[in-house]
Amino acid sequence: MSEVAAAQLPLTMLERATLVMDLFQAPDRHLTLGQIAVRTRLPRATVHRIVRQLIQLEWLTHSADGYALGRRVRTWNADTARLSRLRACAAPILHELLLATAAVVHLGALDGGEVLYLDKLGGRAATAVPTRVGTRVAAHRSTLGRVALAHLPPEDVEARVTDIEPGFDLPALHRRLHRIVCHATDYDDNEFGSGLAAVAVAVDASAAVGVVCDRPAALRRIAPRVRAAAAEIRGALTPRSRQVSEHHRPRPSR
């Protein structure tokens, strides 16, 4: 290899790994070690070290057909598509909730032990609430996160919470989650420790919708609208054929 060609090759391992991963932009593409070496213009031994580590980290997988994208990338892509669809389906419903409550509206999704804020509406009032799209908060520390956690098995909740905050009072959390299940709603008069009041309702076991305002007394009046919004989002996410099937399902006799 000439000195000029060698100088043009990426120097860091991260740059070289990026060169390799860029070859797999087509989800179902399979490449051999030799093909990767030729297309990246990296030494075959270097490529072998890189793909071996990428396999260990589950970015790539290897089979008789060659190397392909691994579980980590496929899960990432699936999660991105799911969250994009959730946000798109929820957008008009969140807007209606904003108009009906004049409160700051949030849409969140559970991600491990955190809740990821996917959307936030509220105009000028939103500046008083310390969140933005992309904010991550410990799930057990927010109404959005707790209503989603309430749908999970206790052992799953404990694993997620202790990973974020070891030593947290789990018995107290389980009691609160039980109340959330009973009422399908979570309230907090001091969300984020900011003195703001919040109410949230789960869309499903991985997502929730909620509002934040500076009027704690208004939460009980607002809660039914939040529950209705969560149900609408749930319906928007449910395929039409499944809705029809469930509508015609025989009702159990009492």
Automatic annotation (TrEMBL):
- List residues of the HTH iclR-type domain: 11-71
Question: What SUPFAM superfamilies does this protein map onto?
Answer: GAF domain-like, Winged helix' DNA-binding domain
Question: Any idea where the IclR-ED domain is?
Answer: 74-239
One Pfam family name from the record?
A: HTH_IclR
Which Gene3D superfamilies does this chain map to?
Answer: 3.30.450.40, Winged helix-like DNA-binding domain superfamily/Winged helix DNA-binding domain
Under InterPro entries, the record lists: GAF-like_dom_sf (IPR029016), HTH_MetabolicPath_Reg (IPR050707), Tscrpt_reg_IclR_C (IPR014757), Tscrpt_reg_IclR_N (IPR005471), WH-like_DNA-bd_sf (IPR036388), WH_DNA-bd_sf (IPR036390)
**Entry keyword annotation includes Transcription:** yes
Q: Name one GO molecular function term.
A: DNA-binding transcription factor activity
Q: Which GO terms describe its biological process?
A: negative regulation of DNA-templated transcription
Keywords, in A-Z order: DNA-binding, Transcription, Transcription regulation
Write the protein's name.
IclR family transcriptional regulator
The protein's organism comes out as Nocardia nova
